Amino acid sequence: MSDCDHIHSRPPALAALLVLVLSLIPGTALAQDDDDPAAEDETVDTSSWRCRLCPFETGWSGSITAGGGYVSEDSFEFGDYTGLEEEGAYPILGGELRYRGENAGYLDLSADNLGLESRSARIEGGRQGSYRLYLEYDSLPHYIADDAQTVFYGARTGSSNLTLPSDWVRGDTTADMTTLDGSLRDVDIEQEREAIGLGAGIKQGDNWRYNLDFRRFTQEGNRVQGGNFLLRSALLVVPVDYVTEQMDASVGYVTDRWQMELAYHGSFFTNNDESVSWDNPYASVTDGDDRGRMSTPPDNSFNQLLLSGAWRPEGGWLSTSARVAYGRMEQNEDFLPATINPAISSPASSRDSLEGRVDTLTANARARAVPWKPLSITGEVYYDERDNRTPRDKYVQIMTDQYIADTRTNKPYGFEKTGASLDADYRLLRRLTLSAGASREDYERTFQEVERTRTDEYSLGLRAGPWANLQLRLRQTREEREAAGDYETLEVMPAENPRLRKYHLADRVRDVTSANLSWSPSAWASIGVSADYAEDDYEESDIGLTGATDMTYGLDVSLVPAEGMTAYAFVSQQRIESDIGGRDNVSGAVWSAELNDNIRSVGIGGEVRDILRDGLDLGLDLTYTRSRGETDVDKRGIAPPFPDLKSDLRSIGLFTRYEVSETTDLRLDYRFEQYRTEDFYYDEVEPDTISNVLTLGRESPDYDVHVIGLSARYRF
Amino acid sequence: MRITATTMARILVAVMALGVMVTLGVVSAQDDGASGDETAMPPYTRTGADTCLKCHDETSEFPVLSIFRTPHATVGDEKTPFAGLQCEACHGPGGEHGKRVRFGQERPPIPAFGDNSIWSTDRENEICLDCHRGSERMHWEASTHRRYDLGCADCHEVHDTHDPVTVTAEQTQVCLDCHVEQRSAVNQASSHPIRAGKMDCSACHQPHGALTEAMLSKPTVNETCFGCHAEKRGPVLWEHAPVTEDCTLCHRPHGSNHPALLTKRPPLLCQECHSRAGHPSIGRTGADLPSGRASGFLLTGSCTNCHSQVHGSNHPSGSNLSR
After folding, report:
1. What is the spatial order of strands in the sheet that A275-279 belongs to?
2. To pair with A547 at 20 to 30 A between CA atoms, which of A118, A309, B70, B188?
């Protein structure tokens, strides 16, 4: 889409612009006569409204929470994101500090989990209604595996240069690597993401809004990545050392009838590792294939301007809003050499870097009209373009640092998506609304098997309240996607099966049924029931995804049986089925696969305040999530079955809080989690189990972890 | 007997059809054609908040004093309700509600934001929007939540010093009360740090209305994901088109039974789109498990054992996504 002018095919973009312009026209007039909230107040005699009983907050207040806890077992899986990954004691430390001044000045300081890797803190101050400043910090630990083993030096120190021990014996297969067992070293797979943000917001007068936000994310640690030489691979532990800086700035003008906002979004990604190199643990196949080198995500940037607006004329019969966003992604990292194999002279390249550039244009406009009271109509148009202006060039392929293969030309991917929808809601009776909708989307893509797909969707719905305490919502949708023109299999070597239909390009019929019911049989009880079912039929596909269903249903109950007492219970079940067809080597054995994921979640809990005595609160939460993944592959009728993928998570949470005095309370927390998993992709796969993949020997996680914590909170 | 998804779907449709018929019948019978006397404007109280607080102190059934530790009751900000009509700025004129009632007489409801309030959700929302119309609420008017008659007070507890829906660790529970499918997802084996309370729904979604599908805050799905995963943004030399197009073609952002939020595991995930002669097209079976031939085309990372640059490669020799 880089080679032509698309202005003629951008009606939604123009519509969005039109709405934005329209919002300006009445604005000049309406800006003078905005509804003044005070105008209504003038009719009310408030001369006797003293607010003598109003306990307005001024001065300093806050709380400090301190204590300690104990974790019963090491478990990365349990500690993922929470920071409770190690057995032993941990501190509980947090608090908040507030200041409220007479002149609306304020200061808020809060901190949580200060003793853990999941710590966070924020300070915000300013004058309410005028300006605000904030500074915030957040740390997020991501623990991936604590049972991995690697033979590569450098993996544990975060090096991008991974080397084998000096006595390493290279082999044709992992079984031939005779020094493997003695060379394995434990390595933890983990990352820590830290975010620092600061910003300011200003309100000027009744209408102007200014905001400026800056955030800097650092992500450090490691991850697992395969590194191969032809069909022989080693799972490597490669470093992660990313920095992302983001800036958002906006200026807005807000009135009661219309508003506009002009915003800038900038995002700048830096990777401190430009590549990963590693020793080939396998016996040499070609001269010089002792080491490999792969690229890492390159530095890139994204700059975007966004113009948004909304307008609603007097009377409430129409409301419109729109947004146009124009952005540019750029990437120009220096290319790595085509190979580091000294026996292969690196081919001459016409360029040293990609000069990658993608221009994005997104435009949306939506309007809701109420031509007469029972009827409301919502219309929407949108346009989304990825105009990939990255230059095309030829690149000689040195396959896995071992041999010269063919020359390939890059295919910068772009697309253009245009759509519109219309939905109508008709209030047939006071408690009955019927809905109908239709939408169309055209999707054009570059360098794909299908140049354009068209998706039409139709829906019917009903919202009803046969009784005041019962609400029912039903909706049925049919979506039909068809390719415009033939599905033309791309010419590649080896050849692609011509009967394959990629599922996001294939013809598809999708039916979606959803039903929701909420019932409040009394003031202290509410019940919600929901069921959603989606069925995809890829009627023209027999290789690739041929069908899928997704069914979810759930039951929620919330109770307030007595003052100071709440209780809840829920059950949800999801079943996802997929059918995939295939054929070995295009014309060989036909096979079919059926995947079923079943996930069931059950929970019950509640909280009681002032139980047994004043100031004593008690809470309990029990949850159980059971997941089963079935994989059935039928091939010649003789294939051994796969075991199920299993995970069972049982969790008990219990707390009690006792108010010792008006300023102090004690809290005791207990949590137990039991996690059981079976995953045939990893279980029983030792580093040398697979002849051509040197793995990390990870197992699927199991744990039983008890956590107990005692803390005191002092309020002032 | 095992109930298949198709059978369940038929049951669901049958129940829906029955529900529609019953509902239409009941609604028709119940409907009195009245629309409620929303236009009636009762008088204001004589002494404003002092009238209200005589009853609504900390010992009442509906204690309200925590409002004085929120921005709505900040001394010195002329825009707050307590600089104007105090409680009645939001709840509407309380003269009828606050007057003396005879023994046995039912107390008239407060017009807005109370039990049996007479004002409609739309009218209640207008009260909030009078002050909170700007910026992130710009697209509220034609939003999905508004279309389904959601009220501000359905999610917000403005009397609470720490409104749960504005607290990262607590917001998700508010959203999941209605979004049952997502409740199932966030409890699955692979999920974003939602259960740990380190990420909330509004990290990606704009519940006050957005022009992007699924009420996403950013203009597109992928721009939303790149907010935290900028390393996958590119552009790179060798792009993997579905990755570049839409992250959700392979990932379930709310949670999955498979690692890395994948919709399913490789190799079958990859074989939905790749069936080239040679190893990509081979149907893997139980014979490829460790008890059999222990195939690297199936186990651990499967296809990604070698094609590890599935999000695209910037290596000149990386066209097959292995460098």
Report:
1. A161-162, A275-279, A291-295
2. B188
Contact predicate A546/A579, CB 8 Å: yes
What's the first-to-final CA gap in chain A, in angstroms? 63
Q: Do residues A399 and A229 lie in contact, with contact meaning Cβ atoms separated by under 8 Å?
A: no
User: What distance in Å separates the CA atoms of residue A550 and residue A154, rounded to the nearest whole number?
Assistant: 44
Name the band, by pLDDT with cuts 50, 70 and 90, for residue A6. Answer: very low
> Could you give the residue ranges of the DSSP H alpha helices within A513-598?
none
Cβ of residue A649 closer than 8 Å to a chain B Cβ: yes
Residues in B touching A682 (Cβ below 8 Å): 299-300
Closest CA to A705 of A49, A263, A85, A141: A85
Residues of A (457-516) whose Cβ lies below 8 Å from B: 462-467, 472-474, 476, 492, 494-497, 500, 502-504, 513, 515
User: CA-based angle A243:A413:A440, to the nearest 5?
Assistant: 110
Residue A413 φ then ψ, to 5°? -85, 130
**Residue A74: Cβ-neighbour burial (10 angstroms; 0-12, 13-18, 19+):** middle
Is residue B211 less than 8 Å (CB to CB) from chain A? Answer: yes
Neighbours of A312 (CB within 10 A): 22
> For residues B284 and A207, is the Cβ–Cβ distance under 8 A?
no
User: The tokens 């300013």 sit on which residue?
Assistant: A126
Whether the Cβ atoms of residue B186 and residue A627 lie closer than 8 Å to each other: no
Q: Which residue has the tokens 């007595």?
A: A562
Contact A395 B138 (CB under 8 A): no
Residues of A in contact with B231 (CB under 8 A): 242, 244, 269, 271, 297
Count Cβ atoms within 10 A of the Cβ of residue B41 and give its class: 0-12 exposed, 13-18 middle, 19 or more buried.
exposed
Is some CB atom of chain B closer than 8 A to the CB atom of A149?
A: no
Q: Is B226 helix (H, G, I), strand (E, B) or coil?
A: helix
Q: Is B20 exposed, middle or buried (0-12, 13-18, 19+ CB in 10 A)?
A: middle
End-to-end CA distance of chain B, in Å? Answer: 50
Determine the pLDDT at residue B35. Answer: 44
Tens digit of pLDDT for each residue in A79-136? 999 999 999 999 999 999 999 998 999 999 999 999 999 999 999 999 999 999 999 9
pTM: 0.91
A479: number of CA atoms within 13 Å, CB side? Answer: 19
Helix/strand/coil percent split, chain A, to 5: 5, 60, 35
Residue type at A102? E
Nearest to A106 by CA among A144, A58, A45: A58
Torsion sign over Cα A124, A126, A132, A133: negative
The answer to whether A236 touches A155, Cβ cutoff 8 Å, is yes
Residue A634: count of CB within 10 angstroms of its CB: 15
CB contact (8 A) between residue B184 and residue A513: no
| Residue numbers in A near B296 (CB within 8 A) | 231, 233, 690-693
How far is CA A68 from each of CA A92, A385, A691, rounded to the nearest angstrom? 5, 53, 48
Residue A297: both structure tokens together: 């995500």
d(CA A235, CA A669): 40
